[in-house]
């Protein structure tokens, strides 16, 4: 089958992170993009929900780090972790 070239621009750090993840999956970036294109055409939409867990946002991580720094400096109150049993 004939192949065509697709060139895209992205941040170098993003490219390296994506490359590393694709390596963990055992595929190339080209294969991952091809899978995305095929799924998009098959489903006639972006084939996944685009969302980010707000816990990992820069703003929340900075807030958590400030809280840790305050605790380490003797300011604030450390609370016990509450264990909850899973009903499942």
Short summary:
The chain has helices at residues 12-25, 29-43, 58-72.
Describe this structure in words.
The protein has 88 residues and is mainly α. It has a domain at 18-72. The chain is 50% helix and 0% strand. It has helices at 12-25, 29-43, 58-72. The chain starts with 11 loop residues before the first helix and ends in a 16-residue tail after the last helix. The mean pLDDT is 90.
Helix content: 40-55%
Low-confidence stretches: none
What is the total tally of β strands?
0
Shape: elongated
State which percent range the strand residues make up.
under 5%
- What is Rg? 21 Å
H/E series: HHH
Tally of individual helices: 3
Distance between the termini: 50 Å
- Biggest sheet record: none
Average pLDDT taken over every residue: 90
Backbone structural class = mainly alpha
């Amino acid at each position: 089958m004939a192949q065509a070239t697709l060139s895209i621009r992205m941040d170098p750090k993003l490219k390296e992170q994506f490359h590393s993840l694709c390596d963990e999956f055992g595929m190339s970036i080209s294969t991952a993009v091809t899978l995305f294109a095929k799924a998009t055409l098959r489903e006639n939409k972006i084939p996944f929900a685009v969302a980010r867990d707000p816990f990992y946002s820069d703003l929340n991580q900075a807030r958590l780090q400030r809280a840790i720094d305050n605790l380490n400096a003797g300011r604030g109150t450390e609370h016990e972790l509450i264990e909850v049993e899973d009903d499942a």
